[in-house]
Amino acid sequence: MKSLRTPKSDDALTLASEQGSRPVIALRSESNGARPPLRSHRVLQPVVLIGIVLATLAAVLAVGVYVSATKRQPVLAAARALPAGTLLSSSDLRTTRIAASADVLSTFAAPADVSAVLGHRLSAPVSAGAPLPRSALAPVAGGQSSFTLVVPFGHALGGNLHPGDRISVVATFGSDSGSAQSRALARNLVVLDVGRPASVGDPNTAVIPVTVALPDPALATQLALANSTAKIDLLLEPAAGSSAPIPSARAGGGS
């Protein structure tokens, strides 16, 4: 007696040839060829994760921009390029916002100070759109002591002076013996106004009035004496002023 067994896939062709009458189709078993699993959900998962990450980054950036914007503080800025000596008016200024520390912000004029800023002259140029430094505001004439020097045109930088400039006054005093001494009488004075030489005659022999602000009214007597008895020369200083020493000079007369 022959044993009964289930035909395997390897025996399919043999069985078919033995029977001969009709073909036998052998189905592949699960163990020999498993169907490939669906991968669509695996492909979609990284896309979803990337979308979540991008959305999170966008939210973080939006919050950062908002926080940065809220930290910006308003300051006064130049509405156009303002040269030194500009008499400030409302059309010269606008409001802008900057992000800076409290110490830096305190060096710029605030919108609340606009009424006090108008009428000042600039002692230094300010670029268009740049914040307005408090240090660039020259004192308003009448707001503090001032003095007018009468200086020969050739000794006043050839008239190349403008309101807002800073100057030092150097006076040369002579004596009956022929000796002379030059010394600096005042440093870093802000020019408030500059006159013009006479339109007739030699400009090199003309004099021009130069009005300066006096931080110390005690300087007035020294400047008045120099105006009367000395030769005055004006030294143009940097916009921020200078602290470099100016030593005195002496020339001796004949014995």
What would a concise description of this structure say?
The chain has 255 residues and is α+β, with helices and mostly antiparallel strands. It contains five helices and ten strands, in the order ααββααββββββαββ. Strands 5, 6, 7, 8, 9 and 10 form a six-stranded antiparallel beta sheet that branches.
Question: Which labels suit this protein?
Answer:
25% strand; 255 residues; two-stranded antiparallel ribbon
Would you write up a description of this structure?
The protein is α+β, with helices and mostly antiparallel strands and 255 residues long. The protein is 23% helix and 25% strand. The protein contains five helices and ten strands. The chain has helices at 12-19, 40-71, 102-105, 114-117, 219-229; strands spanning 73-78, 93-98, 121-122, 137-138, 146-152, 166-174, 180-194, 207-213, 231-237, 249-251. Strands 5, 6, 7, 8, 9 and 10 form a six-stranded antiparallel beta sheet that branches. The mean pLDDT is 78.
Helices and strands, with pairings:
Layout: H1 12-19, H2 40-71, E1 73-78, E2 93-98, H3 102-105, H4 114-117, E3 121-122, E4 137-138, E5 146-152, E6 166-174, E7 180-194, E8 207-213, H5 219-229, E9 231-237, E10 249-251
Antiparallel strand pairs: 1-2, 3-4, 5-8, 6-7, 6-9, 7-8, 7-10
